[in-house]
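User: structure tokens for Dehydrogenase E1 component domain-containing protein, please.
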Amino acid sequence: MKVQIRGHHIAKLDPLGINSADLDDQTPQELVYKNYNFDNPSRTYSEELKKASPAVHAASQTWTGFLNCPPPPSSVARRKGLPLREILRRLELTYCRHIGVEFMFINSLEQCNWIRQRLETPGITDLTPDQKRLILARLTRSAGFESFLARRWSSEKRFGLEGCEILIPAMKTVIDKSTELGVESIVMGMPHRGRLNVLANVCRKPLHQLFTQFAGLEAADDGSGDVKYHLGTYIERLNRVTNKNIRLAVVANPSHLETVDPVAQGKTRAEQFYRGDGEGKRSCPFCYMEMPLLQAKVSSLKQCICQSYPIIQPTEQSTLLQTIRSVLQLIRVSLDHVARVVNAPIFHVNSDDPESVIHVCNMAAEWRATFHKDVVIDLLIQEGIVTEEEVKDVKEKYDKICEEAFERARQETHIKYKDWIDSPWSGFFEGKDPLKVNPTGVNEDTLVHIGKRFSSPPSQRSRVYYSQRY
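Assistant: Done. Predicted tokens:
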């Protein structure tokens, strides 16, 4: 259990291999095995546990899952239970490798066991060759888009995703799994970092419209303009993985203070209300935050907006159901205690391990659909499945798409603001009179009484208090 609780402190989360999970080389004392007097690692877990604590050993006879799974096919198979060495090895592979999980604070045994089952099952993160090819294609598009922009507009500010291109396959995996589980609309709130890439490769915004933003053209219609990496969009498209239609909206974000996240949640809540989605099964908010440096991480967490909007969500007055939150940070620090307030599990994952990232994203979407609760994904920045020629072919194909879109963008003469509306609301208010005033629930006599009391001079007692205020 100590490994399940503290394993994320020593997990290998840094893609560069420079920093440890807690920015130091100290191992928590709870994870130093010699402190538990395990004198013979070859003995079975059951024998060691009975020796250390007879009471816990008696309770362990009813355990299921990881600690009660059959031993590996070897000479130890003839023994009763797993050897302690095998138990420790499996625990380290599960909780101390490229995935670090904070979940043991959740006050629900069912939810904790749900997470354990999806992490501790041997080989559960393995992907099929087709799934790996899909990840390759998505990573290629993500990296190819940034490379093309850098080549064509090297001096333009664009806030790219270099170093964490896995964010695109991660977001698309969440969308795929959510669509499979019945979600029809996803509203995304995100900062400027990676926004252009998300618009291009997640929402599939036409590339020529994106490239036109770099040309500095005049607007052809009225509207409120902004820099290209603040713009939003709305699109309805077919998800090719699930063959289901999905509506994607990226909310415009003119602020750098994470205020877009509650806006995205409010937009989702409105859709849930007007579409009769009382359980939140068809509409889902997806908020992504960027924490590039330690200073940014601390200052962003101190912002009132980052602490208040997750906390008010599960209250009775705020009926928004479940948000998937993705946090991108360069240096991992355990400051995600805001998520603990709402009992949201936190998955720290090394962005250089695509299989682990995809597995965590699938778990996040399933968690939201199963328990209708928040979940946090913390992204820290050659197997013979495909040949080198296949990789080169995928890169050249996407580069050709970008070149064709660039040539089309050069022929544009104006920018159209209508192409960047993030809330067209098509079909949203059908059958409703836009001029109808809904009843407020307050009669005229009450309003008159409030008006008179509000505009009347204070009583004599109030005047005395006012005069003696100093």
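User: Anything notable?

Assistant: The CA atoms of residues 119 and 308 lie 31 Å apart.
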